[in-house]
């Protein structure tokens, strides 16, 4: 397959060519070698939960229709799906736990490098948690908030505290169905129990518990991660930066942070500016230290410090292929084991930092919050000292580096829509009500070599904004669209419909708002709740003219995110189908029946334009249900589209 068929990103195409030339195996090669992929796995009908198996259901109805224990395709598919939810919810939530732990250490003075950067947000969280803040120091409040946040993970009964932030009607519905999470860990553990051999075999019951667990991610672990990261590292404000492999610099020591948790990467930002290390870099013949990021830890330090992004998930090996990276340090999640072999083809040092994520034979410098700055400096020093080993003849850095604006949050996104000093959702709601905006959509998630890299994100987002749908993004999806220049205000003139264009030009925002990393999808839940709270657009999230999508998803985290959006009332389209199609019942349940139960449902559609139109149709239906008038500039656009077709 040609590089142009692998990715729409020209910088990535260049590096894929370099990999071919240098005979270095990368993700697309391994994906080719894996063809044809296992059909049983794709349909979700392989069960290896106990050792009477592995069992598999014959999808053509000729062979076995149950496993050895009697489990049907419905049971097997639902159990496998629930276990994927558990994996995703666990990953996000463990991230949240680590942030809560850091907050506690900082409050107790045990991690001196961490400060409470947003005391106002801390007080707001304290209020939600029911902490009396009167006459207490910020540290004392932080300590109490940290303790409560940590106890949310191990809580056995009652309700998670953040669910109170959902619209009243939504919370009542969750209570009625019995899916309000009691404790974050508890719901994940219960998935593992229910899906053990010989426990729950009612597919609807299994999936409803999966919903309870994913709500404990979105309205629990991920929300803890986002909110407490804002408290510790500062709530982001709109900030300009650059994206794509061109952010790597030929004459600088290039250090890449990759993974998810900001605990280390935030300190790395500070350490990379340390005069002693900068001096050392100069002595090695470099002009300085250039820090860049990959995946969601990149989004974290982009949002708060404007650090450039080298690329998204499928670019992690490509960054190494530039030959210009002295060091890549990783923490947890979305880190390909293949990095060990790719870095071994260059001078690049790979360093793991989390006890949860080690590579055999790869240097491990364990990160400890108590000694954060010293450890960060030690790691960067390794990179700086490695500059002399760079083989200049093998360096090839693509030119592409594109401007973007990130740093939008629940607190600030609509302050901008309302004018600089007003923090209200009124202008957004009014724009939707009067039809200048059709609605809003969240487009999030990963890359997946099953789909041409970045193509679905970009095509879908362009189609949505063209139809006056304001888009919010997180994760690798935001990075994909940023690389194509969609995250700057000027993009509105080139790609957005007239209504969205008017809004963007009036307040100077891009038509696509970057709200952060994948745990920051929790910001979207709060944005939706705030829109409902402001009024005029129904009284539940499921009433809103909105939709969600993960067009290139691949991780279990994406499944958990998808489910907590659906469970919050959002119609959500996934690109590649989830591995459920081996059960017509489960597929029908999550793509159809669920809507009648919880107000949201899934659809699977690989074609991003078709998927965008499914979202638009859903938005239009919700507008109609709310008795809203037509979209203001619909007829203009139709004429324009027709002219384009004719010419
Ligand atoms: O958590 S979007 S590939 S990096 S899983 Fe991973 Fe997917 Fe990227 Fe961020 Ni989210």
Characterization of the model:
The protein is of the alpha/beta class and 647 residues long. Helix content is 50%, strand content 10%. It is globular and about 65 Å long. It binds FE(4)-NI(1)-S(5) CLUSTER with Oxygen (BF8).
Helix and strand layout, with pairings?
Elements: H1 3-6, H2 10-21, H3 27-33, H4 39-43, E1 46-47, E2 55-56, H5 73-107, H6 119-129, H7 138-154, H8 168-177, H9 184-194, H10 203-233, E3 239-243, E4 253-258, H11 262-271, H12 275-283, E5 289-294, H13 295-305, E6 308-311, H14 316-321, E7 325-330, H15 339-344, E8 349-352, H16 372-386, E9 402-406, H17 413-417, H18 426-433, E10 439-443, H19 455-466, E11 469-473, H20 475-483, H21 491-495, H22 498-507, E12 512-514, H23 521-534, E13 546-550, H24 556-567, E14 572-574, H25 584-598, E15 602-604, H26 608-625, H27 634-646
Parallel strand pairs: 4-5, 4-7, 5-6, 7-8, 10-11, 10-13, 11-12, 13-14, 14-15
Antiparallel strand pairs: 1-2, 3-9
The structure holds FE(4)-NI(1)-S(5) CLUSTER with Oxygen (BF8).
Residues 260, 295-296, 313, 334, 445-446, 475-476, 517-518, 555, 557-558 line the site of FE(4)-NI(1)-S(5) CLUSTER with Oxygen (BF8).
Query: Could you give a short account of the major beta sheet?
Result: 6 strands, parallel
**Helix/strand/pairing category:** alpha/beta
Overall pLDDT score: 96
The CATH architecture of the largest domain would be 3-Layer(aba) Sandwich
Short structural description:
By secondary structure, the protein is α/β, with parallel strands linked by helices. It has four domains: 3-47, no CATH class; 73-233, Up-down Bundle (Substrate Binding Domain Of Dnak, Chain:A, Domain 2); 239-394, Rossmann fold; 407-646, Rossmann fold (3-Layer(aba) Sandwich), CATH 3.40.50.
């Amino acid at each position: 397959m040609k590089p142009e068929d692998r990715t729409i990103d020209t910088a990535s195409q260049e590096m894929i060519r370099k990999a071919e030339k240098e005979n270095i195996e990368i993700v697309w090669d391994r994906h080719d070698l894996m063809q044809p992929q296992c059909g049983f796995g794709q349909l979700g009908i392989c069960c290896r939960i106990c050792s009477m198996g592995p069992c598999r259901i014959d999808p053509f109805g000729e062979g076995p229709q149950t496993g050895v224990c009697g489990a049907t395709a419905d049971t097997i598919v639902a159990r496998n799906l629930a276990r994927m939810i558990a994996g995703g919810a666990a990953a996000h939530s463990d991230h949240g736990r680590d942030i809560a732990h850091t907050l506690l250490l900082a409050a107790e003075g045990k991690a001196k490098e961490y400060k409470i950067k947003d005391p106002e947000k801390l007080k707001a969280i304290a209020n939600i948690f029911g902490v009396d803040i009167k006459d207490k120091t910020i540290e004392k409040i932080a300590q109490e908030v940290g303790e409560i946040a940590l106890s949310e993970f191990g809580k056995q009964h009652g309700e998670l505290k953040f669910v109170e932030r959902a619209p009243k009607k939504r919370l009542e519905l969750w209570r009625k169905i019995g899916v309000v999470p009691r404790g974050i860990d508890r719901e994940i553990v219960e998935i593992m129990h229910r899906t053990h051999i010989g426990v729950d075999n009612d597919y609807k019951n299994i999936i409803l518990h999966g919903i309870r667990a994913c709500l404990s991610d979105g309205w629990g672990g991920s929300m803890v991660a986002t909110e407490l990261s804002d408290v510790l590292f500062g709530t982001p404000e709109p900030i300009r930066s650059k994206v794509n492999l061109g952010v790597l610099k030929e004459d600088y020591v290039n250090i890449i942070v990759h993974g998810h948790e900001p605990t280390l990467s935030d300190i790395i930002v500070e350490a990379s500016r340390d005069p002693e290390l900068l001096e050392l870099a100069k002595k090695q013949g470099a002009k300085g230290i250039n820090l860049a990021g990959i995946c969601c830890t990149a989004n974290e330090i982009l949002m708060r410090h404007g650090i450039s992004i080298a690329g998204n998930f499928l670019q992690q090996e490509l960054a190494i292929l530039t030959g210009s990276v002295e060091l890549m340090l990783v923490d947890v999640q979305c880190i390909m084991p293949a990095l060990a072999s790719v870095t071994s083809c260059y001078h690049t040092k790979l360093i793991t930092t989390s006890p949860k994520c080690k590579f055999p034979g790869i240097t491990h410098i364990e990160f400890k919050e108590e000694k954060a700055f010293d450890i960060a400096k030690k790691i960067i020093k390794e990179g700086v000292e490695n500059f002399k080993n760079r083989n200049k003849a093998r360096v090839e850095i693509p030119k592409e580096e594109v401007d973007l604006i990130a740093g939008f949050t629940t607190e600030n996104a609509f302050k901008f829509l309302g004018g600089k000093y007003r923090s209200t959702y009124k202008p957004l709601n009014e724009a939707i009500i009067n039809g200048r905006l059709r609605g809003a959509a969240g487009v999030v998630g990963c890359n997946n070599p099953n789909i041409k890299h970045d193509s679905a994100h970009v095509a879908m987002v362009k189609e949505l904004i063209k139809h006056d749908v304001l888009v919010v993004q997180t994760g690798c999806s935001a990075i994909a669209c940023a690389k194509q220049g969609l995250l700057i205000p000027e993009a509105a003139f080139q790609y957005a419909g007239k209504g969205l264009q008017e809004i963007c030009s009036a307040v100077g925002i891009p038509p696509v708002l970057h709200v952060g990393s994948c745990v920051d999808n929790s910001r979207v839940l709060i944005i939706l709740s705030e829109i409902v709270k402001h009024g005029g657009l129904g009284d539940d999230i499921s009433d809103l003219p909105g939709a969600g999508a993960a067009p290139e998803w691949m991780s279990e985290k994406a499944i958990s995110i998808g489910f907590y959006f659906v469970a919050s009332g959002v119609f959500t389209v996934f690109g590649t189908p989830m591995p459920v199609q081996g059960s017509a019942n489960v597929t029908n349940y999550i793509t159809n029946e669920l809507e009648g139960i919880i107000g949201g449902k899934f659809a699977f559609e690989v074609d991003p334009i078709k998927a965008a139109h499914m979202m638009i149709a859903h938005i239009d239906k919700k507008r109609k249900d709310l008795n809203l008038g037509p979209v203001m500039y619909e007829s203009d656009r139709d004429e324009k589209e027709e002219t384009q077709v004719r010419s």
